[in-house]
Design brief:
single chain, alpha/beta, Urease, subunit C, domain 1, TIM Barrel, 8-stranded parallel sheet, 15 helices, globular
């Protein structure tokens, strides 16, 4: 199918920065084949008029747990360990496969409606998130969360499930996979070594939570005599392409390790603030040349999967913490939410920017909105004033998945109905209103 975006303002890469200019964009099949100049032989099947519209590369959510969307607003105002082990873990133990599927569908709808076209997910019930991704048209990187001690049976079962899910999704090129050792407090050093060897053997990346809270730092220091990042490094997790989520409580030497091992760091500002874990030293990491990308974490801790909200926080909080208005600029923040995320996921040749030859993953925003008026600096507008409601149309892999804010690939009303049934069955409907 040939799609023409006609006379549209577009965020386009120019060297190490992004620029906005009016142009035509041509999509053939799943790929961008022309920007500005019509490709030879292009046949137009659909025209999207660009008047009063801005097209951006789809946002990339580099750390989330999509199944958790039905846990939104059920575990609030708790310390991290009470939140995780006192509330969330018992809910997860009740989850069925269908619960995971409907939770993932809800998450995808929320992400799509706020301009996200690719997400990096750590989940528990195999085949369900991948099912939702296939049906929705989303792009995703999936890992089965791994918890284990040495070569115990439980850890081995989870590893087997990770491979089973990967093999079952070979028919969908929008899905790629990593191994996901959950965290240093749920994976001991021996199990980390097993996972790192498996990742090397199977040419897979690793997605792990690291240095999220002070209690984690204390626990790992007491048990292993080092920081979580040092522990992960000693046990080989950084010997393959790695994504470390959070990295809030880290030292200068931790950052040196992350830089030396080319570890990608996902910052999750809302979740880190809500759980009282603090602020990741993003400006310092950027100064060191660490690739920083952006995530929401799950809706159980955020409670939103809106990456525009996260982008706004990213570009504001560090100015306040550092008392320096110049750190994490609007332009830097937008790149963190797009091309940096693609690099972290090993997808920079596929997505993350609007370029000829890349997959057609993009969001079209309506500029006739209060938040983006006046149009004097739209990069600043994307980072500071946009809220996601401006997203009108989404194209992923060359297919229109949302148009005029209507998701075309999933039945929204059915998803809302099923999620509400889940929380009633689990007794999570507090009805505090």
């Amino acid at each position: 199918m040939g799609i023409l975006l006609k006379n549209i303002l577009a965020v386009l890469p120019e060297g190490e920065k992004d620029v906005i200019r009016e142009t035509d964009i041509y999509i053939e099949g799943d790929v961008i084949t022309g920007i500005g100049t019509k490709p030879e032989g292009f046949l137009t099947d659909k025209v999207i008029e660009g008047k009063d519209r801005l097209v951006i590369p789809g946002l990339i959510n580099c750390h989330t747990h999509s199944y958790m969307s039905f846990m939104r607003n059920v575990a609030d105002d708790l310390s991290f360990m009470d939140w995780l082990f006192g509330t969330i873990d018992p809910i997860e133990q009740q989850m069925t496969d269908e619960d995971t599927y409907w939770g993932a569908c809800l998450a995808i709808i929320e992400m799509m409606k706020s301009g996200t076209t690719c997400f990096n997910d750590m989940q528990m019930n195999i085949h369900q998130t991948t099912r939702a991704v296939k049906e929705s048209g989303m792009r995703a990187v999936i890992c089965r969360g791994l918890i284990g001690s040495g070569d115990n049976e439980a850890g081995q079962i989870r590893l087997k499930q990770a491979y089973e899910e990967k093999d079952a999704a070979k028919d969908c090129d929008r899905l790629t996979f990593m191994l996901g050792p959950h965290a240093p407090y749920t994976c001991d050093d021996a199990f980390m070594r097993i996972v790192s060897e498996e990742a090397k053997k199977n040419h897979m990346g690793i997605h792990v939570h690291l240095s999220e809270s002070e209690s984690e730092i204390e626990q790992i220091k007491e048990k292993y005599g080092c920081s979580p990042i040092e522990m992960a490094d000693k046990n080989g997790l950084f010997d393959v392409p790695a994504i470390a989520a959070h990295c809030v409580q880290i030292t200068e030497s931790d950052m040196d390790i992350l830089k030396a091992k080319n570890v990608n760091v996902v910052t999750n500002p809302a979740s880190n603030m809500k759980l009282g874990n603090g602020f990741a030293p993003v400006p310092a990491m950027l100064e060191k040349g660490i690739n920083v990308c952006l995530g929401t974490d799950g809706a159980a801790s955020n409670n939103s999967l809106n990456l525009f909200h996260e982008l706004s926080l990213l570009t504001l909080i560090h100015k306040g913490v550092k008392k320096t208005p110049q750190c994490v600029s609007a332009a830097e923040g937008f790149r963190i939410a797009t091309i940096n995320g693609a690099k972290a996921l090993g997808l920079s040749e596929v997505t993350g920017s609007l370029e000829i030859g890349k997959k057609a993953d993009m969001a079209i925003l309506n500029l006739n909105t209060p938040s983006l008026t006046p149009r004097n600096n739209l990069i600043a507008g994307l980072s500071y004033s946009a809220n996601g409601s401006e997203v009108e149309t989404v194209i992923i892999d060359g297919k229109v998945t949302m148009e005029n804010r209507k998701v075309l690939t999933l039945d929204e009303e059915l998803v809302y109905k099923k999620v509400n049934e889940i929380i009633i069955r689990m007794g999570l409907d507090k009805k505090e209103y």
